[in-house]
């Protein structure tokens, strides 16, 4: 299969890169100085694209690759892929569900604990060498806090299961109520935010969920509320979030994703009630390898005319 | 009853003369954080040794006949000497999770009841332990530092962490806190094993008869036991070596349970993967070698210091003291049987 051209949209994982290089003819899109001339010269060789949360296959790229048969995503989110265009052209799309569910859910809880219990601030305080007897770092208890989940898919359910072990009552918002699930349903995100102590974004990014966490939701969550975002940056109206934190209309935030990664609003850097992570939801050695294996597995299955492992389209 | 040691404020608040006295040796953290009246009760009054100019033994001798109970936050040890100077002492209540600051032998000898924090602080301790474990494996504090220094945009992706799911977790001491830790980590898909003074028959976790074997069979060791003569430096070179270079240690119990010098050496040399530490051998002094390490997360002995726990604990302590003075059973008595 080493004559099959695979375009890797951006650097994502060196093991994946290595494997794609070994098995296919790999084109590293980010190393190309003139992208449109590159696409012009190589359009007949490229039959697959490997994308991720940063870069995938938009309409423009798809149009530029007439031989494109499959987009294998190194991510579970599909917001960087023009799914409609892929459907239209009969291009297959795969992603990496399930293998990263646990890591993302673990990180969501980790962020909740880090924000409420001020783990990062405590660590910073000790490292400053200024700890003296009689100093008390007072934090907020996590056990028993009401956790509200936007999106009760695989990741949302995994977050719920973990939070329940901390005796957290679970509530959620979803496009449709799930009657078989025992958690409290709210028909709108504002109502969910008003009720819960910790609001976590765990839904896919679509046109409908763009800026699903806006000023009204943030105000409803309130000065003691905490927002956790392990979804996509554009789920949250970022400037509104920043001003709410500054004006103390929101109690705290734990964010793994941002509207314009890797750029993070610098105003957040000095806030001790905010924990910022560089999009590491699935960022473990074990999971990235499993995700890479899925990408490779899907590509090989496709070109060997076998059933795809994790097809979306 | 001598009025000299009582504050005039105290005198004017209640009809003081018939309320029994509870001795406080040093101001508890809750007074410093929430004010002097945080633990007030209409059924008793406080005698604050720290407000007197007299040295403690003299102060105790002066009030020997008045003091029936001591309230200890853990900051001031309740020694045999103190106890011997108080012939009417019948109760020691403490808000500390640990009891190593109270001479339990002397209490047992004198028939003095002891009331503790019960299990009220266990959730907070367990939450800290889990928080630390996720932080160390997933590099939360280190990555937060990275982003807040602007390095994500200038230096690119942060190094990968390690998956928590499926990790083998070894709990040292399966008491109330250890049990809460186990319950939480179970939900993350960890497999739980433990070492305790005795095997617990109804518990679904694997028991190891000693800590070295436990360490050899786990990826993360979580210290949840009490500090006693037996557990001093329980986590030593042999245990850390058995834990190995992919192992993580979390200590939310007491600093002296771990041989700190050896732990620091292992961390600096990369002989273990990382550590989460709320407690140290000589607080507030922390080995400076740890400050340069990204695989260590530290906190200033605050695993139980949440606003909610202060409130719950305050109510519990007052409840215990009121029960004692009403001749009712204590809410959270500590068994003093050997």
TrEMBL record, chain A:
Domain D-isomer specific 2-hydroxyacid dehydrogenase catalytic per the UniProt entry, residue ranges: 18-312
This protein's GO CC annotations: cytosol
NADP recorded as keyword: yes
GO molecular function: glyoxylate reductase (NADPH) activity; hydroxypyruvate reductase [NAD(P)H] activity; NAD binding
Pfam families in the cross-refs: 2-Hacid_dh, 2-Hacid_dh_C
Keyword annotations of the record: Glycolate pathway, NAD, NADP, Oxidoreductase, Photorespiration
UniProt record, GO biological process: oxidative photosynthetic carbon pathway
CDD domains: HPPR (cd12156)
Domain D-isomer specific 2-hydroxyacid dehydrogenase NAD-binding: start-end pairs: 109-281
Protein name: Glycerate dehydrogenase
Domain of life: Eukaryota
Family: Belongs to the D-isomer specific 2-hydroxyacid dehydrogenase family. GyaR subfamily.
